[in-house]
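Exercise 7b. Backbone tokens:
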């Protein structure tokens, strides 16, 4: 079959499960690392300065995103040539190995410099696998039914919201039940051990799902990577530009609890509860936004959400920093979560429509990961550095304003020049 078609509901449900469980595992691991960064820094990096250790932990978090574009090209091309299903099975295998290494890696006190090097290797392996995950999974989802691309694609990002909810739940529960010494010693590893339990389930589901109906019966005659960079630069710029504000906001939300704890002096457990609530908003709100986008226009809803993100970012940061409390933090994060869900819902399908089927997984994977590497992986580091250099805790809000403007420009081009609605 060379085109998409409407499939049996049971088949579609299996496709949603297969595509989202790997993405959920990826983002659970990412969120867990961001939330446990303070403890990871103490475990793997020498010295007694907690602020420097946190920056080092975040730097590793960002550095490993640099390999994701390579993983996107290699595994995305594999998905376009050999099938979405085979690529999804391969990525979850690699992801589980990286999670295992991180869960069992001894600390700096036991093996010295090998400890941070081991963490970097684990993160590089996870980054390479995650590089191919988005393109293959998103292509697989939106190719199930042309009439519901926004709704089906939204589950890719709804799974990120669920991962945020789950990882924040772990962080809130662990920091409430365990002492700081216990968290530093072993408590931070618990979420990663849980991630290892999810991997085999995802592998089984992906092994037994039907291939995408859009996959041609014969492999492409030319290299998909060559075709992508020769003929589809515009698609890469549109897909990456549309993603900028979403990925920046995602990592701002994940780092806000740590910001509230370290900078504003709020309670550890309560700060993570704020992220649990935000994760719930994203999990439930994103598919609703995708459904509404199919009915009322994807670009219209996304541009409105991006404008509101840009307008509200600085005032919300001012509110949280001038009146720091659990309630203000939760309210600000919930507002940003609702706006993110509105933008999030239609984003995967809009990005996918920037490419033809034969280069879709490659284009999505590279465009997504190049953007996440620049505007996502380093966002916590940029936010922490902005606060440290300017002395203003409001400065990360200004960064969100800039990314919102970039995404609005990309969406405008997608609508006017590509006819994406």
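Sequence design result:
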């Amino acid at each position: 079959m060379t085109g998409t078609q409407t499939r049996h509901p049971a088949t579609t449900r299996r496709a949603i499960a297969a595509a989202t469980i790997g993405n959920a595992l990826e983002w659970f691991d990412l969120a867990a690392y961001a939330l446990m960064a303070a403890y990871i820094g103490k475990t793997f990096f020498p010295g007694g300065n907690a602020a420097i250790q946190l920056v080092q932990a975040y730097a590793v978090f960002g550095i490993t995103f640099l390999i994701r574009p390579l993983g996107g090209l290699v595994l995305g091309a594999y998905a376009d040539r050999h099938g979405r299903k085979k690529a999804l099975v391969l990525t979850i295998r690699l992801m589980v190995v990286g999670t295992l290494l991180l869960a069992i890696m001894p600390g700096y006190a036991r093996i010295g410099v090998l400890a941070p090097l081991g963490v970097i290797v684990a993160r590089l392996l996870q980054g390479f696998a995650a590089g191919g995950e988005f393109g293959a999974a998103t292509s697989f989802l939106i190719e199930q039914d042309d009439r519901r691309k926004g709704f089906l694609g939204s589950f890719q990002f709804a799974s990120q919201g669920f991962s945020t909810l789950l990882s924040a739940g772990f962080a809130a529960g662990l920091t409430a039940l365990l002492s700081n010494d216990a968290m530093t010693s072993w408590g931070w590893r618990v979420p990663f051990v849980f991630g290892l339990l999810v991997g085999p389930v995802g592998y089984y589901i992906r092994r037994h799902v039907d291939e995408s109906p859009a996959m041609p019966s014969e492999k492409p005659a030319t290299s998909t990577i060559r075709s992508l960079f020769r003929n589809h630069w515009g698609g890469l710029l549109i897909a990456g530009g549309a993603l900028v504000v979403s990925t920046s906001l995602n990592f701002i939300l994940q780092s806000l609890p740590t910001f509230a704890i370290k900078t504003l002096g709020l309670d550890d457990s309560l700060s993570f509860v704020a992220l649990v609530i935000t994760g719930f908003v994203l999990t439930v709100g994103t598919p609703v936004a995708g459904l509404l986008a199919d009915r009322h226009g994807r670009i219209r809803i996304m541009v409105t959400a991006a404008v509101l993100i840009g307008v509200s970012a600085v005032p919300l940061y001012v509110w949280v920093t001038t009146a720091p409390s659990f309630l203000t933090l939760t309210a600000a994060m919930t507002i940003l979560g609702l706006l993110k869900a509105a933008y999030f819902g239609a984003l995967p399908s809009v990005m996918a429509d920037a490419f033809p089927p034969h280069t879709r997984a490659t284009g999505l994977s590279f465009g997504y990961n190049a953007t996440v590497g620049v505007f996502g992986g380093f966002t916590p580091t940029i936010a922490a550095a902005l606060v440290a250099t300017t002395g203003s805790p409001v400065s990360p809000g200004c960064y969100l304003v800039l990314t919102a403007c970039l995404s609005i420009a990309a969406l405008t081009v997608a609508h006017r020049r590509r006819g994406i609605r």
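Instructor comment: DSSP finds 19 helices and no strands in the chain. The mean pLDDT is 85.
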